[in-house]
Amino acid sequence: MTKYGVIVGSIRKNSYSKGVADAIVAGLPADAEVTYLDISHLPLYNQDLDANSPVEYTEFRAAVAAQDAILFVTPEHNRSIPAALKNALDIASRPWGESVWSGKPALVASQSISGIAGVLAHHVLRQSLVFLDMPTMQQPELYIGNTDKLADETGKITNEGTQAFLASAGKQFSEFAAKFVK
């Protein structure tokens, strides 16, 4: 049984990113253990706290370390990833030399209510994952645009074609992750 951590870059209630994540998770194997890793409560990363980290840092690092693979879904904020997501990446990659991300297979999906589908955030996140030594699934590329037209008011993806596409990506991710999970 593979343990999948899901990190949703949007901390907004009724987030479209959460809806996209749910649709991808629907394609994972029935025996998958899925944990949504909450990033909304994390204090801003501060290197001065490495020697005596706040409990939120240590609990988040432990939660990431316990996962076999990580699924990231992000919106685009100002042509980049949201601050909460960048903060989570920083917290779990520190103290220097103690990153808990290293070697974990990753999937990146981006979404936006615009037609460009968060493509810039997607690639900013991928750049960070390269540095964090996370093998990242390359295909299919998951740029989901016009999410406000594909989801209901709770953020749940309701478009059947999009649901099927995202579930298929989840299945493909499970096959990709299996190459790395020991």
From TrEMBL:
<dbReference type="InterPro" id="IPR005025">
    <property type="entry name" value="FMN_Rdtase-like_dom"/>
</dbReference>
<dbReference type="InterPro" id="IPR050712">
    <property type="entry name" value="NAD(P)H-dep_reductase"/>
</dbReference>
<dbReference type="GO" id="GO:0010181">
    <property type="term" value="F:FMN binding"/>
</dbReference>
<feature type="domain" description="NADPH-dependent FMN reductase-like">
    <location>
        <begin position="3"/>
        <end position="146"/>
    </location>
</feature>
<protein>
    <submittedName>
        <fullName>Oxidoreductase</fullName>
    </submittedName>
</protein>
<dbReference type="InterPro" id="IPR029039">
    <property type="entry name" value="Flavoprotein-like_sf"/>
</dbReference>
<dbReference type="GO" id="GO:0016491">
    <property type="term" value="F:oxidoreductase activity"/>
</dbReference>
<dbReference type="GO" id="GO:0005829">
    <property type="term" value="C:cytosol"/>
</dbReference>
<dbReference type="Pfam" id="PF03358">
    <property type="entry name" value="FMN_red"/>
</dbReference>
